[in-house]
């Protein structure tokens, strides 16, 4: 099953699921909608982040607008999950269908790995 997905889609799924910042960014964008200014996204993230720290978070648990602008939003844009205008510093749109498809793929891959692990035992 794992091999039936394109390499680029598997990379996008891994980039989203392994990074707590990107998961939280997508949560905020789904909750509050797009378009959204970069600073508004950073403020929403700060206001909605979980009270416990997750692995990979900064010491304050927050992600800065600089990290969003230079790292996370371009990654998500490159994966086709959202459209980010870096010049205007604005998240133009979120592709819910693409995101749902990638998350479903991630779920199927994980289930396939679990099944394979059980049969190897």
Overview of the structural elements:
By secondary structure, the chain is mainly alpha-helical. It has one domain (2-120): Winged helix-like DNA-binding domain superfamily/Winged helix DNA-binding domain (Arc Repressor Mutant, subunit A). It has five helices and three strands. It has helices spanning 7-17, 20-32, 38-48, 65-78, 96-120; strands spanning 36-37, 82-85, 90-94. Strand 2 (82-85) and strand 3 form a beta hairpin. Helix 1 (7-17) packs across helix 5 (96-120). The protein is elongated. It starts with 6 loop residues before the first helix and ends with a helix. The relative contact order is 0.18.
CATH-scheme architecture: Orthogonal Bundle
Major beta sheet, specifics?
Answer: 3 strands, antiparallel
Which spans have pLDDT < 50 for at least 5 consecutive residues? none
What is the CATH topology classification name? Arc Repressor Mutant, subunit A
Mean pLDDT: 84
InterPro entries: DUF7344
Pfam families: DUF7344
Organism: Haloferax litoreum
Domain DUF7344: 15-90
Would you kindly provide a brief summary of this structure?
With 121 residues, the protein is mostly helical. The chain has 5 helices and 3 strands.
Overview features:
single chain; 121 residues; mainly alpha; elongated
List the helices and strands and how they pair.
Blueprint: H1 7-17, H2 20-32, E1 36-37, H3 38-48, H4 65-78, E2 82-85, E3 90-94, H5 96-120
Antiparallel strand pairs: 1-3, 2-3
Helix pairs in contact: 1-5, 2-3
């Amino acid at each position: 099953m794992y091999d039936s997905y394109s390499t680029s889609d598997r990379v996008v799924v891994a980039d989203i699921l392994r990074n707590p910042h990107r998961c939280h960014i997508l949560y905020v964008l789904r909750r509050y909608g797009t378009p959204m200014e970069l600073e508004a996204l950073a403020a929403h993230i700060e206001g909605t982040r979980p009270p416990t720290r997750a692995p990979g978070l900064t010491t304050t648990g927050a992600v800065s607008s600089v990290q969003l602008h230079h790292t996370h939003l371009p990654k998500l844009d490159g994966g086709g999950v959202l459209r980010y205008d870096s010049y205007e510093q604005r998240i133009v749109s979120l592709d819910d269908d693409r995101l749902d498809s990638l998350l479903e793929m991630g779920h199927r891959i994980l289930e396939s790995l679990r099944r394979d692990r059980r049969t190897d035992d």
